[in-house]
Amino acid sequence: MDFGLSPEQILLQTSVNRFLTDQVPLDTVREIATGEKNDQQVWQGLTDLGIPGLLVSEANGGIGLGSLDAAIVAECLGYHVTPSPYISSAVIAPITLQAARRKDALLGNLVTGQHRIGVAFGEGIGARAQSGISVSGNKLSGKSLFVLDAEADDYLVTLRDRSIYLVSADAVGLTRNPLTTIDKTRSTCELVYDKVAADLISDDPRIYIKALDAGLVAMAADTLGAAQYALDQAVAYAMQREQFNRVIASFQAVKHMCAEMAASLEPCRAMVWYAAHALDELPEEASMIACHTKAQLSEVGKFVTRTATEVHGGMGFTDLLGLHYWFKRVGFNRQMLGSPEISRARAAQIQGFVA
Fold first, then answer.
1. Res. 220: pLDDT tops 80
2. Which of the ends of the chain has fewer CB neighbours closer than 10 A, N or C?
3. In angstroms, rounded to a whole number, what is the distance separating the alpha carbons of residues 36 and 30?
4. Residue 156 host element (H or E)
5. Tell me: domain 206-350, CATH 1.20.140.10, correct?
6. Has this prediction a pTM greater than 0.85?
7. Do domains 7-111 and 206-350 have the same CATH topology?
8. Contact 139, 195 (CB under 8 A)
9. Which residues of 316-334 are buried (b: 16+ CB within 10 A; e: fewer)?
10. Hey, which CATH number is domain 7-111, 1.10.540.10, 1.10.1710.10, 3.30.450.20, 1.10.357.10?
11. pLDDT at 1 > cutoff 60
12. Where are any strands of DSSP class E within 169-303?
């Protein structure tokens, strides 16, 4: 039995990689990371490929593909350290809106790229100091930290009871403060609510969990792609860098470093694919495997990008090489939507190992 990708999925992977190679080189990433440009042109190009409508059903104007297809695209974006609102606008938002049976113009605008929806799920994952949200008569007060996409038109905001509200970026009483994180390829912000009008999307915790699990798998797939790039670059560098009239790839210590990176990363691809498969086909396992996958990729991704930097020696730390963008991307992914510790604690609860 063949457990590989289908011809259609390989074509999707090839198309996205070709676009990113041609249209989003490192120089473009650097310009966006330094603030010279924004990611709108990149997102428009991905929109032309149909990426925002990947998980939107055909009835709602999308392509109607599955979570494995979304994971394939996320891996491509991570490999090319692509600046985009993919996880928020193309993964979490469509799943949330469709699960809540929202079929208004919002979904259509997402598919066409005219609308971006950010995600403020932090309150549902875990409370943070000097944050928290209260609701009174469909008006929100409080603060959300580390919100995905500082350029979004609307935001999905979760409360502690895992209800989800839709808030317009232009709403009266809403203050949006850009945040600076280690990852400059994706924008985050802080939202401060002062009796902000909000639209209740869902009060069903299962919808929040479904959207969160999809986000965890997409984040893990992004880390997989970023780590694979770092490994590829380390091997290529070791094959050409010479010391003592020999390429450093011939040194046993460097061989071991590259082999350990490859051995650690390769099983993760099957884990990500299975987690994506479970989202659609194995709902009873989906949350547990999503948590474990996010946690595992966070640890392996950190190891691989760090080791790849070490293989490059002093060159690995320079902005000229740019490897730090992948290292920081993995660090960002590690913490967003739940650290490895939070993800494993949630998995333990699901499996009944803790109260």
1. yes
2. N
3. 9
4. strand 154-158
5. yes
6. yes
7. no
8. yes
9. beeeeeebbbbbbbbbbbb
10. 1.10.540.10
11. no
12. 174-179, 188-197, 199-202, 242-243, 246-247
Sequence ranges of the domains in the chain: 7-111, 117-204, 206-350
The two tokens of residue 212 are 């969160």
Q: Looking only at Cα atoms, what is the longest distance across the chain?
A: 74
Here the tokens at position 143 are 């603060």
Q: Which stretch of 93-97, 241-245, 303-307, 327-331 has the lowest confidence by average pLDDT? A: 241-245
The amino acid present at 180, given as its one-letter code, is T
The crossing angle, in degrees rounded to 10, of helices 323-335 and 205-240 is 160
Q: How far apart are CA 321 and CA 135, in angstroms?
A: 48
CA distance 69 to 49: 13
User: What sign does the dihedral 194-199-205-206 (CA atoms) show?
Assistant: negative
Pick left, alpha or beta for residue 322 (phi over 0 → left; psi -120 to 50 → alpha; otherwise beta).
Answer: left
- Asked whether the predicted pLDDT for residue 203 surpasses 70, the reply is yes
284 CA to centre of own chain? 23
Q: Report the distance separating Cα 32 and Cα 86, nearest Å.
A: 16
Cα separation of 330 and 97, whole Å?
28
Contacts of 256 (CB under 8 A, 6+ apart): none
pLDDT for the residue numbered 129: 64
**Site of tokens 């409370």:** 127
Mean pLDDT of the chain: 93
Q: How far apart are the C-alpha atoms of 39 and 151, rounded to whole Å?
A: 9
| Topology (CATH) of 117-204 | Butyryl-CoA Dehydrogenase, subunit A; domain 2 (2.40.110)
Q: Cα separations (Å) of 331 from 131, 216, 265, 326, 339?
A: 23, 14, 16, 9, 10
Retrieve residue 297's tokens: 């990729």
